Request: fold
Amino acid sequence: MERLQKVMAEAGVASRRHSEQIILEGRVTVNGKKVTTLGTKVDGNDVVAVDGVPLQKEQHEYFLLNKPRGVISSAHDEHGRKTVVDLLKKEGIDERIYPVGRLDYDTTGALLLTNDGDLANKLMHPRFEINKTYIAKVRGLVTNNDLRTLRRGVKIDGKMTRESHPRLVETNRAKKTSRVKITIHEGRYHQVKKMFEAVGHPVIKLHRESYGFLDLSGLASGEFRPLRTAEVRDLREL
Ligand code: URA
Reply:
């Protein structure tokens, strides 16, 4: 469910502010009934009309990107750095597409982008957080004890992380580094980096191998593909 003024703004009627004005002027109907209350919420099944003209429904689009390093996971960057949305725009994707969650500037890998706000909110909801699998290259030789601590949860920003699933991939004794595959179910800020920091193994490189059942097969760094209809359906049904 979305607020009426947001739906109007997204359909290109006017800014949210101006859309509120239009609602207050009594020019908006939902399923044929005049609505003048600003908090009103509507969903995709409601027919919203302004001055009797139904809003054009935005076609939903879904993309999986293999995010390269050095790109911001947001639609705009106040410092003018390249964003994931710029990568899609360059290939002619012109819709208002947003990333679902974020990957750090220096993190690479699987990132979902969509203009389907309902699905994005659902996937990002803390109660619902989807499995995310990362490969972390970290400083030091990770021990079984470290893995156990990571699995059970560590305190970051004053709060324990939920159970995670770490597995040692390899250690390099000469360079004193390790590679760990880890699946987490939350999406806290800098979560993976902070978890490894908490067990004394700062992250050198971080790559997200998969997001739920979506992996990066066939996608080189910087490439993206539209999701298949069945994948969108499966994300909705997760
Ligand atoms: N955890 C991090 O620390 N960074 C990311 O980009 C994703 C998860």
